Amino acid sequence: MASSLSFIPSIPSTAIAPRGRRGHCFFGALSPVLPFFLLSQSSRPLPNFRPAAPVSALLAEQETFPKPTTTPPPSLPFRVGHGFDLHRLEPGYPLIIGGIKIPHDRGCEAHSDGDVLLHCVVDAILGALGLPDIGQIFPDNDPKWKGAASSVFIKEAVRLMHESGYELGNLDATLILQKPKLSPHKETIRANLCKLLGADPSAVNLKAKTHEKVDSLGENRSIAAHTVVLLMRK
Questions:
Q1: How far apart are CA 164 and CA 154, in angstroms?
Q2: What confidence score (pLDDT) does residue 138 get?
Q3: Which of helix, strand or coil describes residue 172?
Q4: Number of H helices, E strands in the chain
Q5: Strand, helix or coil for residue 143
Q6: pLDDT in tens, 52-66
Q7: Residue 102 pairs with which residues in a beta bridge?
Q8: Residue bearing the bigger pLDDT, 32 or 187
């Protein structure tokens, strides 16, 4: 390749500074100063840039895009909802689970009766319907709900479910508490829950677990519940 440099000066040997015995340069000697030469680069063709389209053309192009429809989406054949609730356990309160009073030395501290299972089921149904949670529909600062039975909340959730055109497909709930043991009460709780929901017993499942003595749930200071519901279009 041909170089654009027509002449590169040679460096005279006398211009190189002499070196000492141990490889150090003598600072008294002058070193040559070499000029920098820019090498010419071969000309390269510029890439083909697409000229910017005028604004009027862009607007006309956007008008050809399909516009979003304003019609509501069709009703879903089914909906899934999840609910969660937790309450502190304190002496002097009754322990009510699924509308059933359970013998224990403490109960749920809450604005209403503190039924953690029914509150959880209500939230699951409301969530499946895409509605606000139980705290917004039944606020705990409303004196009307002070000490109210949670069966009232369940009946309202079921009414909203039927009003929206759905019915319960199935429900699966899990209670988490260290004490008391719920094995002797599980079937009674489940039967009452089926009655409140107007559901067949085969569609309602209830489980209970301890928390292996970990944190407030495992230390008998709180109780929690999870619920998943499937709602079917009527």
A1: 15
A2: 80
A3: strand
A4: 6, 7
A5: helix
A6: 555 555 445 544 444
A7: 95
A8: 187
pLDDT at residue 228 greater than cutoff 70: yes
- Six token digits for residue 53: 């389209």
Length of the chain: 234
Residue carrying the six token digits 């503190």: 114
Residue 153 CA to residue 119 CA, distance in Å, equals: 8
Contact indicator for 131, 160 with CB cutoff of 8 Å: yes
Mark out the alpha helices in the chain (DSSP H runs).
Answer: 55-62, 116-128, 134-137, 151-163, 186-197, 215-218
User: Which residues on neighbouring strands pair with residue 76, listed in sequence order?
Assistant: none
pLDDT value, residue 208: 95
Q: What is the Cα–Cα distance from 211 to 220, expressed in whole angstroms? A: 9
pTM over 0.70, yes/no: no
| Residue 5 scores a pLDDT above 50 | no
CB 94 within 8 A of CB 100: no
Return the closest-CA partner of residue 229 out of 168, 166, 164: 168
> How far from 153 is each of 119, 145, 180, 199, 221, CA to CA, in Å?
8, 10, 25, 16, 25
Longest dimension (CA), the chain: 111
Q: What is the reported pLDDT for 221?
A: 94
Residue 205 is encoded by which pair of tokens? 């499942």
Q: Which listed CATH number (3.40.50.300, 3.30.1330.50, 3.40.50.720, 3.40.190.10) goes with 78-233? A: 3.30.1330.50
